[in-house]
Amino acid sequence: MIRNNAHKYSVSAMCSVLQLPRSTYYYEPVPSPDPQEQQLEEVVIEIFKSSRNNYGTRKIKVELARKSLQVSRRKIGRVMKRHGLVSTYTVAQYKPHKAAPNEAEIGNALQREFSQEKPLAVVVSDLTYVRVDAKWNYVCLFVDLFNREIIGHSCGVNKTAQLVYDAIASVSVRLDRIQMFHTDRGSEFDNKLISEALETFEIERSLSNKGCPYDNAVAEATFKIFKTEFVKQRHFHNLQQLQLELDDYVHWFNHHRIHGTLGYRTPVEARQWPS
Q1: Which of 33, 65, 231, 239 is the most exposed place for a label (fewest CB within 10 A)?
Q2: How far apart are CA 110 and CA 34, in angstroms?
């Protein structure tokens, strides 16, 4: 009745005559949520949280497909926005001050051949800083170019060759299987201790050209992931806490984190079932 006469009389007047609250006239029932939509949102949230708040729409879509759920990235984005799920990759990166370069005459034997067909053909490494309490500590990672697996890691108070040596000691595979070890020209890699270890196991040495980070692009990219997913997500009170959580992250990175460059497989999956 009110709608049919709205062109003649005001809604307020008609509601007053009919003794009907205006809110009742304007009320529109909210449709009950679709159970399938609710289930999808729960799965998206679960995948996002199990990725340690790192996955965006692309990788969440891959994980949903593994669960036989075909969902567009746009729809996943709407779910993420509705629940305030923001990937850590939206955080800007801070670039640390670089140390003095290694002036050794060793050349760049790798020549940016970052795609390797055999495990341990080339292992790359680099170091980065981590805030522990009120001081800077450092982390060293060894990455196998074959499947991007972190095969060795260490952390310590000082950015020294000992930190690199500790990462070498943490490698679980036989060191004589590694054919080449490539790094940038950081002074921490220029040390008799490191050279003797590489010579003992007959590992070829390769150094990036001076001032050229692209020669060690995979290590640089791995540390970008590491700092976004691990460093920026935590506050470390002491070195022991950093060591424990670093061990846990490396295990997750190798066994559970899917990588776009590996066809959305984990490093361990790529090593066990190479394409």
Answers
A1: 33
A2: 55
| Burial of residue 188 (number of CB atoms within 10 Å: 0-12, 13-18, 19+) | buried
Cα atoms in the Cβ-side hemisphere of radius 13 Å centred on 31: 4
Cβ atoms of 187 and 162 within 8 Å: the answer is no
Model pLDDT, residue 94: 45
> Which of 126-155 are b and which e, b meaning 16 or more Cβ less than 10 Å from the residue's Cβ?
bbbebebeeeebbbbbbbbbbbbbbbbbbb
**98 vs 183: CA distance, rounded Å:** 14
pTM confidence score = 0.70
User: Quick one: what percent of the chain has pLDDT higher than 70?
Assistant: 86
SS3 content of the chain, % helix, strand, coil (to 5): 45, 15, 40
Contacts of 234 (CB under 8 A, 6+ apart): 245
pLDDT per residue as tens digits for the range 191-222: 788 888 899 999 999 999 888 889 999 999 99
CB 22 within 8 A of CB 28: no
b/e burial code for range 195-221 (CB count within 10 A of at least 16 → b)? eebbeeeebebbbbeeeeeebbebbbe
